[in-house]
Amino acid sequence: MEYLTDQTSEIAENQSNIVEYLQLAELEKLEDTLKSLYASIPYNSYVNNNISSYEGYFVNVLYAYFSGIGLDIVAEDVTNKGRIDLTIKLNKYCYIIEFKVDQNGKAIEQIKKKNYIEKYLYLKNEGWDIYLIGIDFSSENKNIKDFVWEKV
Fold it and tell me: What pLDDT, in 10s, does the model give residues 39-86?
């Protein structure tokens, strides 16, 4: 990237930071970085459409970003009780992530209600740390409204 743009790459630094935050389970810092990511999407992407009201839009932005970094991710991770929106596994950390738009706290509730952790309990038995992350987006602000997490 630096070669192509002839400048120090802020994008590469953000990607490196995200990996570091996930490797160390620094979820407050991850939240801030993700908010910056969504804040950097040009406002004209939202002109004359209602894309910000769709959960899939917000999920796909993160899926593409995380995939581009090279993280071990599973989108629409199927379980016996539903689908986890996004699962990330990195350095003995497993993150089970659910997204909602304009539903105030429903994301982490769904993870618990549908017992999504059950699929990854074997990792806990192997010494992994498992985190549940519920991310609620605001269609009005086009960014993260609530970022709730807990370690299991």
Answer: 999 999 898 899 999 999 999 999 999 998 889 999 999 999 999 999
Q: How many structural domains comprise the chain?
A: 1
Question: Pseudo-torsion of CA 54, 58, 59, 62, nearest 10°?
Answer: 170
Print the domain residue range for 31: 2-151
The reported pLDDT for the residue numbered 74 is 95
C-alpha closest to that of 104 among 54, 145, 58 = 145
Give the domain CATH number at 89: 3.40.1350
pLDDT 10s digits, 49-59 = 999 999 999 99
Q: What does the block give as tokens for 63?
A: 């899926």
Q: Which long-range contacts (CB under 8 A, 24 or more apart) does 141-148 make?
A: 142/38, 142/41, 142/43, 142/46, 142/52, 143/35, 143/38, 143/39, 144/31, 144/34, 144/35, 144/38, 145/104, 146/104, 146/105, 146/107, 147/27, 147/31, 147/34, 148/105, 148/107, 148/108
- How far is residue 7's CA from residue 29's CA, in Å, rounded to a whole number? 25
